[in-house]
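Duplicate of #3305? Posting structure anyway:
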């Protein structure tokens, strides 16, 4: 499918150092962005779908790098079907598993945790709830795994490894397994903060510094934050990516956002939700954290968007999260909400308002155009101006 989004007021790139792209048009084909800038009538003639943004803002699809995936679009923690599809109506186009730890009766022996990771990976290879891309299948590090197991996992396509829920005596015992996983190109993640489930232990800055994973999960608390003295240490004494989550401690989220900017380490600052958990299901979780940072931490909204898009994509080695030719065509059109005090999406985010989601495109395919069922209506009329496809892109609104 060839899709164009035209009449954009602003294009946010997802790259915080160069946060804006000149132009008013994005054209994608075959799931990839082909052109960003301006376009004449000839360039639009052979498009299957043309979306008129009516002066709204385009951003990369949000990447939630901490989602508790199980199997299918179902969360046993909240006994709810369809939560992932609902997240797309909050602008989330990619979900990355935080390991399948919430699978009921999850296995804890080496063969069981390997099988669980591979089954989850395979289950989502061609399943896109609401059009979302789901990266599932993270090996949960448990006692008994040996180095050869990581060779096997890598051959089977596993590229994520999670520490923090295994039955180890101390968090330091994860160190050799994290090293084995990293040596095979896996992205390694570690639970950070107080214990979140019975039987697991708290993990604090001294553990993260010793383990040296790629990502410190919910460093602001999942949901309980580590002691304050650990935050400057992780910023200044490591190169670990620091993920803040909606379902964590807001005070430490805001504080950490200042610490990384003061240290010129914003590349390492990631936004995620850590849901569904006991904190619930949050279709607008990514959007809320963006607004918290833009309105309470004096962060430019385009930087907050980059922490939810391009920064996540770089750490997790994805081809999405950036609006540029050659990148995956995952694009969200946002606007200020009708009835608010601001007249464009970025100003609304800085004001502390969620943005209205007017359209979501994933893999170059419009998933809905007009109005999200999870946000208020925008002040602009985002619509399908042309379509040669026999499909209704309006989506279901409340």
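Output from current build:
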């Amino acid at each position: 499918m060839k899709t164009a989004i035209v009449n954009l007021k602003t294009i946010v790139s997802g790259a915080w150092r160069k946060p804006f792209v000149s132009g008013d048009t994005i054209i994608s084909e075959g799931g990839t962005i082909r052109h960003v800038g301006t376009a004449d009538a000839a360039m639009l003639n052979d498009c299957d779908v043309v979306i008129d943004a009516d002066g709204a803002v385009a951003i990369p699809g949000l990447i939630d790098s901490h989602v508790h995936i199980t199997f299918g679009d179902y969360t046993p923690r909240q006994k709810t079907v369809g939560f992932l599809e609902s997240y797309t109506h909050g602008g989330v186009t990619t979900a990355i598993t935080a390991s399948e730890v919430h699978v009921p009766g999850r296995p804890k022996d080496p063969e069981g945790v390997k099988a669980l990771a591979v089954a989850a990976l395979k289950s989502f290879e061609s399943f896109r709830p609401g059009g979302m891309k789901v990266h599932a299948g993270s090996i949960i590090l448990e006692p008994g795994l040996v180095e050869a197991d990581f060779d096997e996992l890598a051959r089977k396509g596993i590229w994520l490894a999670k520490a923090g829920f295994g039955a180890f005596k101390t968090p330091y015992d994860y160190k050799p397994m994290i090293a084995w996983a990293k040596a095979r190109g896996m992205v390694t993640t570690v639970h950070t903060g107080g214990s979140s489930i019975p039987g697991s232990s708290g993990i604090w800055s001294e553990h993260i510094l010793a383990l040296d994973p790629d990502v410190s999960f919910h460093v602001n608390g999942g949901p309980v934050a580590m002691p304050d003295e650990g935050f400057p240490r992780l910023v200044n004494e490591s190169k670990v990516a620091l993920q803040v989550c909606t379902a964590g401690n807001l005070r430490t989220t805001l504080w950490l956002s200042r610490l990384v900017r003061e240290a010129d380490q914003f590349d390492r600052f990631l936004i995620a939700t850590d849901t569904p958990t006991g904190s619930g299901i949050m279709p607008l979780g990514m959007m809320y954290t963006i607004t918290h940072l833009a309105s309470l931490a004096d962060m430019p909204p385009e930087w907050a968007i980059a922490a939810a898009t391009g920064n996540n994509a770089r750490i997790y080695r994805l081809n999405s999260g950036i609006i540029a030719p050659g990148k995956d065509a995952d694009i969200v059109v946002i606007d200020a909400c009708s009835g608010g005090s601001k007249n464009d999406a970025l100003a609304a985010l800085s004001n502390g308002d969620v943005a209205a989601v007017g359209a979501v495109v994933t893999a170059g395919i419009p998933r809905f155009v007009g109005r999200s069922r999870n946000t208020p209506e925008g002040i602009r009329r985002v619509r399908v101006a042309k379509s040669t496809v026999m499909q209704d892109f309006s989506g279901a609104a409340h």
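Confirmed duplicate; merging threads. The mean pLDDT is 96. Residues 2-60+320-387 form a domain with the Urease, subunit C; domain 1 fold (CATH 2.30.40.10).
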